[in-house]
Amino acid sequence: MTMSTPPGGEPAPDDGRAGAPGSRRPLVTIAALYGAGGSVIGPRLAARLGVTFLGRDIPALAARRSGEPPEAVAEVAEGPHQSGERLAGGLGRAPIIGAALARTSAEPLEATERRLRACIEDFLADAATGGGVLLGHGGMVVLRSVPWALHVLLRGPQEARVRQAMTLQGLDRQAAEHHLRVEDRARIGYVRRAYGANGLDPCWYHLILDSTALDPDDCVEQIAAAAHARVRHPRPSPPI
After folding, report:
1. What is the fold, at CATH topology level, of the domain defined by 25-52+131-240?
2. What is the rounded distance in angstroms from the CA atom of residue 221 to the CA atom of residue 216?
3. Domain positions in the chain
């Protein structure tokens, strides 16, 4: 894992420059199980904190900055199972990560995948210097060394998440249950595959919310309060 900017370093003097303690902006990473409302809470939280929201567009933005093929970076970010499930119905095919990566270069698959994932990590690290709300993509692992970052997990019982997905996305039960199985597997699998970590382990997070039991705006207020507290009193997260 590479980080082109060292946001986790020692605090600089409060001289008014970007990154100095007096000018730090809240930084929140959100991991969310399917139906937990991350795509609703994330943007509202960013607006509440006055920072940028970055979610599904992270791979495309990272690819644009690095010059890598956007479809290859997206496949690394989503994983073969998730991207295949999404595209199989509309395109009649299930893309395989090796095929997408093979188009990028003649490098060995493992080395190519590491390089493509590194461009996402570099993008997250650079985004962290200006604050923001980052949804998914293993942000709680990539940015763990940032002392003022707040790492949040949104979850809830499966049945409650199915019902919430039906409401938020206008799905029937069968579709919501299908998406829950596919998306949960993909999101958990990405962190395990990329970093060898269990993304459901509470040790990765400062705040865990059952966002099916709370109104989204109440979740936003709780997370915002904790994010401001982390900025006021930054402290390194212990190693795992």
Report:
1. Rossmann fold (3.40.50)
2. 9
3. 25-52+131-240, 59-129
pLDDT computed for residue 218 by the predictor: 98
User: What is the per-residue pLDDT for 107?
Assistant: 52
Q: Specify the pLDDT at position 16.
A: 33
Residues 176/35, Cβ–Cβ less than 8 Å: yes
Q: Which residues contact 180 (CB under 8 A, 6 or more apart)?
A: 34, 35, 158, 161, 162, 165
- Report how far residue 35's alpha carbon sits from residue 161's, in angstroms, rounded to the nearest whole number: 4
Phi-psi label, residue 158: left if phi above 0, alpha if psi -120 to 50, beta otherwise: alpha
d(C-alpha 89, C-alpha 101), whole Å: 22
Q: What is the CA radius of gyration of the chain?
A: 18
Separation CA 136–CA 198 (nearest Å)? 14
pLDDT at 190 (0 to 100)? 87
The token pair that represents 143 in the structure block? 């940015």
Averaged pLDDT in 10-residue chunks for the chain of 240 residues: 39 36 84 97 97 88 80 71 36 33 49 79 86 93 94 98 96 97 92 91 97 97 98 90
For 192, list phi and psi in degrees, rounded to 5.
-65, -45
Does this model's pTM top 0.90? My answer is no
